[in-house]
Amino acid sequence: MLAPVTVLVGFGLVTNVADVVPHHDMGPTCRAAVNLVAGGGEGRTVEGCLAGEEKAHKELEKDRPKIPSTERSQCISTMAKGGAPSYVELVACLEMMRDSRAHREEERSNNVGSRIEVVRAGRL
Fold first, then answer.
1. How many whole angstroms separate alpha carbon 16 and alpha carbon 98?
2. Nearest to 74 by CA among 14, 20, 5
3. CA 10, CA 6: separation in Å to the nearest integer?
């Protein structure tokens, strides 16, 4: 019974994030997270979790136009499989996607530069 709920929550994220970042009730997510780590999560509170989620939501709203839609879609669909929504996890996924893209672009640039040097060396 949990799987259909997860799919519906994820679908809501997928359909809305393209235009605006949806505002979900993060109470259940934060309560579950705090309860999950109750034994080893000293100092972790629902209020602190909610504050972190709200900060991440604002960051997503601010940065949304700069995030490639393919990366947004991939992270959202990955999160939809993971259960309750979390803006913090979405931001972390998008940051990893951004860093991976930057790394690929840097490698591509270095490879092109190396080829140019080889061609120049051959001509000289």
1. 21
2. 14
3. 6
What tokens does 47 get? Answer: 């209020």
SS3 letters for 64-112?
Answer: HHHCCHHHHHHHHHHHHHHCCCCHHHHHHHHHHHHHHHHHHHHHHHHHH
Using CA atoms in the order 29, 34, 37, 43, what is the torsion angle rounded to 10 degrees? 140
Rounded distance between C-alpha atoms, residue 24 and residue 60, angstroms: 13
Tens of each residue's pLDDT in the chain, 124 residues: 444 444 444 545 444 445 578 788 899 999 988 888 765 556 789 999 999 999 999 999 999 999 999 999 899 888 878 778 899 999 999 999 999 999 999 888 887 666 656 556 665 4
- Contact assessment for residue 97 and residue 74, using Cβ atoms and an 8 Å cutoff: yes
* Sign (positive or negative) of CA dihedral 52, 57, 63, 69: positive
Three-class secondary structure of residue 67 per DSSP = coil
